[in-house]
Design a protein that fits this description.
163 residues; Rossmann fold; five-stranded parallel beta sheet
């Protein structure tokens, strides 16, 4: 365990590519990583997006559940908003160092949005995480689709000041 991991104060996970009525293989993979991290840092609160939380074992307590991909007013819950909600939970509690799980091709943007909200993310290892060809989000079904979209989203986030 390196020195930054020793300072983990919270565990955060952004979901990726859910299915219609199932978390999907990508979120099940992320949930396994969260379970491993929870064993290493049992006192760190879990801030988990719902699709990943749905894949966690029943005995794992989520401290802050971030709901699916839509806000109550119908707006899309983007990565920046998910990170903002993580910060909304963490900052008042003095939790800044957050072990962060996301799809490897999504992780750079997630880390950037977390820093924008004054958190110190540590990248969790999600090497080998699959894409889900049955995802309800077409851009998360394959790497090619995601990378093309991600490039455009990063430009958009930069122009909007989200990263």
């Amino acid at each position: 365990m390196n020195s930054s991991e020793q300072k983990v104060q919270a565990i955060f996970c952004q979901s990726f590519g859910p299915r219609v009525d199932d978390p999907g293989i990508s979120n099940k993979f992320l949930a396994e990583k969260v379970v491993e991290a929870h064993k290493n840092f049992p006192n760190a609160p879990l801030i988990i997006q719902k699709d990943c939380a749905d894949a966690l074992p029943a005995d794992i307590k989520v401290n802050r559940l971030i709901y699916r991909h839509w806000l109550p007013d119908g707006r899309y819950l983007d990565s920046s908003e998910v990170s903002r909600q993580c910060a909304e939970y963490c900052i008042p509690k003095g939790l800044k160092t957050v072990l962060t799980f996301a799809h490897p091709d999504h992780l750079w943007r997630v880390m950037k949005t977390m820093r924008k909200f004054d958190l110190d993310p540590i990248a969790g290892d999600t090497t080998g995480m699959p894409y889900d060809p049955e995802s309800v989000q077409p851009w998360t079904r394959s790497r090619l689709r995601f990378i093309i979209r991600e490039f455009l989203v990063i430009i958009y986030y930069f122009l909007k000041g989200k990263i």
